[in-house]
Amino acid sequence: MSEAEAVTDEEPGIARDLTAFQQNILVILSEEAMYGLAIKRELEEFYGTEVNHGRLYPNLDDLVELGLVEKSELDKRTNQYALTEKGHEAVLDTLEWTLSRYVTDESRADEVREIVDEQN
């Protein structure tokens, strides 16, 4: 059984098993669907260094296999990647967990949760 088959829709916290690099890809795709080189440029801007194709595309393929990203063909040479609903939930799960660790003022935490809920 592949890792993608082992993951069910009911399994909470799939994002917690992803690498930071994979989580960053999901965050980038949460804004809009993009083709591979556009994702690469966004990551390079974030990291301040070149992102190798050999790192990017296997990670995109893993995210597709996990059902977090959908891959479609724009033309014969270009694939587009879009966040699935499951991918969107993974981004929100990571954000919620991160905020719960760093936001200690309960009223501020409630404000942040409201903002996250509005995005759903």
Automatic annotation (TrEMBL):
Q: Which residues form the Transcription regulator PadR N-terminal domain?
A: 25-90
Any Pfam family matching the protein: PadR
- What is this protein called in UniProt? PadR family transcriptional regulator
Q: What is the lineage of its organism?
A: Archaea, Methanobacteriati, Methanobacteriota, Stenosarchaea group, Halobacteria
Organism whose genome encodes this protein = Halolamina salina
| Domain of life according to the entry | Archaea
Q: Which InterPro entries match?
A: Tscrpt_reg_PadR_N, WH-like_DNA-bd_sf, WH_DNA-bd_sf
